[in-house]
UniProtKB/TrEMBL annotation:
One of its GO terms (molecular function) is protein tyrosine kinase activity. It is a multi-pass membrane protein. It comes from Citrobacter arsenatis. Residues 16-118 form the Polysaccharide chain length determinant N-terminal domain. The gene is wzzB. One of its GO terms (cellular component) is plasma membrane. The keyword Cytoplasm does not apply. This is Chain length determinant protein. The chain crosses the membrane at residues 32-51, 293-312. Pathway: Bacterial outer membrane biogenesis; lipopolysaccharide biosynthesis. InterPro entries: Bact_polysacc_biosynth/exp, LPS_length_determ_N.
């Protein structure tokens, strides 16, 4: 026997080396076992697919509402405050929607049977548009439930806006009414003061015996020179001032007009919306889980691995017993 034959014989008898051909032969001889394991794994996979809860995701994209959708709200603000509307009332309406929707997300997640509802930015770093999605156990339910949740938040935000406007209408009405009363009191006081001044001038004219006008130009008459109009003229002026209506400034009538405009507001009938669809809730055509193809492929691979392990383990055990 040559030296080369001894080396080959030594390698083939080395227990630490693996003979791939021998492994293939063992696996081929145990193919029935492997096939059985694969079939069992496929059956289990099919059973899992039959009973596993399906997950379907419906998605929608929303953004800031159109001007027409909040026209009544903006018009009411203009009537109430004009160009000086508080910034807190002119806040981004979609911000209200996003906040309320996020609260609903947390509520659904903390239920005993949690529901997966999400809201996030469509483009990272940009506030709008927003992507909202819902995971349901069927495509139709996911789409329907997402639409219902969006509508629920829209109704909630619209009601909040109406309540805010109602509170501001009440406050503004009270403020304007108080302003009118104040201006009326001031106008009455001015009228009373005017009459007192004429009465004082009449008293001086009677004491001085001035009964007829002593001046020709009445527009230059002052409080000190009013007695020169004569007692007859002053008595006539007092009677005229007593029946004369109160004199108001232009601000009084502007305030009254604002109050009338506010009283005609009927915000409760306005249809307000806090969002606009960029993409309506989709009807998913592919479920998220379970994945049929991936599940079956994994079942075949896992069944084959288990079958191969059984065959090799059984042969190794037989060899060990034979040596023993």
């Amino acid at each position: 026997m040559s030296v080369g034959d001894n080396k080959i014989s030594g390698r083939s008898n080395d227990p630490d080396q693996i003979d791939l051909i021998d492994l293939v032969i063992q696996l081929w001889r145990g193919k029935v076992t492997i096939i059985v394991c694969v079939v069992v794994a496929i059956v289990l996979a099919v059973g899992y697919l039959a009973i596993a809860k399906e997950k379907w995701t419906s998605t929608a994209i929303i953004t800031q509402p159109d001007v027409g959708q909040i026209a009544a709200y903006n018009n009411a603000l203009n009537v109430l405050y004009g160009a000086s509307a508080p910034a807190s009332l002119q806040m981004n309406v979609i911000g209200r929607f996003s906040t309320a929707f996020s609260a609903l997300v947390e509520t659904l997640d903390n239920q005993e049977k949690s529901e997966k509802l999400t809201i996030e930015q469509s483009v990272k770093g940009q506030q709008l548009p927003l992507v909202v999605s819902y995971v349901g156990d069927s495509a139709e339910r996911a789409q329907r439930q997402l639409s219902e949740y969006i509508q629920q938040i829209d109704d909630k935000v619209a009601k909040e806006m109406v309540v805010d406007l109602a509170d501001n209408i009440q406050l503004r009405t009270t403020a304007l009414t108080d302003s009118l009363k104040t201006q009326e009191v001031i106008a009455q006081e001015q009228k009373d003061l005017r009459i007192k001044q004429i009465q004082e001038a009449l008293r001086y004219a009677e004491q001085a015996g001035v009964t007829k006008p002593q001046i020709q130009q009445t527009q230059d008459v002052t409080q000190d020179s009013m007695l020169l109009l004569g007692s007859d003229a002053l008595k006539s002026m007092i009677a005229h001032e007593a029946t004369r209506p109160l004199i108001f400034s232009g601000n009084y009538y502007q305030t009254k007009q604002n109050l009338l405009d506010i009283e005609t507001l009927n915000i409760e009938k306005a249809k307000l919306h806090a969002y606009r669809y960029v993409m309506k809730p989709t009807l998913p055509i592919r479920r998220d889980s379970p994945k049929k193809a991936i599940t079956l492929v994994l079942a075949v691979l896992l069944g084959g691995m288990i079958g191969a392990g059984i065959v090799l383990g059984r042969n190794a055990l037989r060899g060990y017993k034979a040596k023993a």
